[in-house]
Amino acid sequence: MTRDESAAPAPHDGRDAGLLAQYEHYPYPARDPREEKSRLLIGSPSHLREIDYWVFGATRPRAQPLRVLVAGCGTGDGAIMLATHMARAGRPGEVLCLDRSPAALDIVSKRAAVRGLENMRFVRGDLTDIAQVAPGPFDYIDCCGVLHHLPDPDAGLAALERVLAPGGGMGLMVYAPYGRTGVYMLQDALERLAPVDEAPKGRLDVARRVMRHLPATAWLRQNTNFGDHLTGGDAGLYDLLLNPRDRAYDITAFHALLDRAGLAAACLMEPARYDPALLLPDPRLRERIAALPERARQAVAEDVAGNMATHVAYVRRANEPVERADPFAPQAVPVMREIPGLELARMMGSDDRLPFTFGTLQVAIALPPQARGILPLIDGERTVADLATIMETRGVSQPRFAKIWAQIFTTLESLNRVLLRAPA
Hints:
One of its GO terms (molecular function) is methyltransferase activity. It comes from Komagataeibacter sucrofermentans. This protein is of the alpha/beta class. The chain folds into two domains: 14-178 and 247-317, Vaccinia Virus protein VP39 (Rossmann fold, 3-Layer(aba) Sandwich); 334-420, no CATH class. Helices cover 40% and strands 17% of the residues. The chain has helices at residues 14-25, 48-55, 77-89, 102-115, 130-133, 153-162, 183-193, 200-212, 219-222, 228-231, 233-241, 251-260, 283-290, 294-305, 341-347, 371-374, 384-392, 398-414; strands at 66-71, 93-99, 120-124, 138-144, 164-175, 263-269, 310-317, 334-336, 353-358, 361-366, 418-420. The strands form three sheets. A seven-stranded mixed β-sheet has the order 3-2-1-4-5-7-6, sandwiched between helices. A two-stranded antiparallel ribbon has the order 8-11. It has a two-stranded antiparallel ribbon with strand order 9-10. Helix 4 links the parallel strand 2 and strand 3 (120-124).
């Protein structure tokens, strides 16, 4: 299902004018460039190690320049993260930030300046004119939180596909309906109280007043899947409840959007999140789950979990499926995505289960007990053969290690915690 206010709106209708006004008055998310001195915001999509693995299968050489487009960069969280990762790793390439909001571009450019990033470029322009303002081709395109605000998401995604280099990929994020329960009810109420053609300042005042008196029975009060309306300041409240155009896609509709653009998901983030067997341990239910097609299983997971507020995916052209390096080959080099292996091992309980959260949902993931000794060895330099040799000195035979490693990697890959390093 999708939530769509109009079937075929004009490219620049009243809602579009409202969006332009919103992001000029309240650039989103609210960011202070001075904070770049003390922290780097990390997330998905567009984490460099994720791109290396999920988009390029850990087969694209690190020395090969990476040309990146961030389409609708906003105030720049994803762009700053990726450009910083590239700079720290000495990776050649450029991150081109495209947005039609001068206010947003001013913030992201100042953030880049504080960090001393010289691998970023800033272009003001509309995604619908991308062939003219950012002709490409691009090896990787980030379009996070943008498609669901466009007058025609299909046209926007098609425009991005046309500037994607052969063998390239994209990182996308769209809103999902069930985890945003309560949002659309309030959006509808506020649009009646403060129509989209009113000035942003007045609309925000109405939203604040409504939130001060919101009944305890309102679904938004029960929903803890996000907090923009509580901690995101004026920009967060406005974007959540006053955005003039806001669609939500369930996973079936998201796949359909990709299909129409000739794209396919290389990875839904995190893959295990879309496995309903994690949530439904009953053996008979798991038999039924296993018999379902993959997309149907993903839909069941979304329906049952109820807390998916977004869908994040790495995608490629459907006729260019990703070819991944073999994670069990002796020369493969595993790498922790972000959390050090020692820290992850320490999180394991006495029952050899790793507590893991998918948003507000916590599950217990079973791992072999030997994971406590293997995970701290993963440093992004040791090969699988190196790990096996070390574990052999600890009494784990090579054949036994192979079975244990298969379980560890398969499980932690599905949680986006252990990936493979790209070749030099």
